[in-house]
Design brief:
With 125 residues, the protein is an all-alpha fold.
Amino acid sequence: LVGIKGAIWVMFIDVGGYHLMEQRNDWVLEQANQGNQGYSFVIALVYMFVVAVIGGIPIIHYYPSVAGGGIPFMIAYLNGIDTGKEFHFPHLFLKCFGCATAIGAGLVAGPEACMIFCGAAAGAW
């Protein structure tokens, strides 16, 4: 049951992030194929900025501790240290949402640490 819950959250990250990335690529390629290379660059830049800001605003304003990979919290939790509410549902949701938007925006951030945290958080609750 824990593996299934973790897989559902990881699937949310994977499908959501790559759907956002495909949407951006479709818009950029459509403009580039029409000969508007400068316009396609502007579309890509604005799209990446908007998606990254949408993913970052809830984390910055509501749960700043969600920023980052989350592996230190997971290691602390496994060592028996009380990590507070780091593995509650809002943290899990925002971590997955932020990771999906980071992938969709094309940021240089791998989803590996986030996926590990999401699996651990799904098992914790």
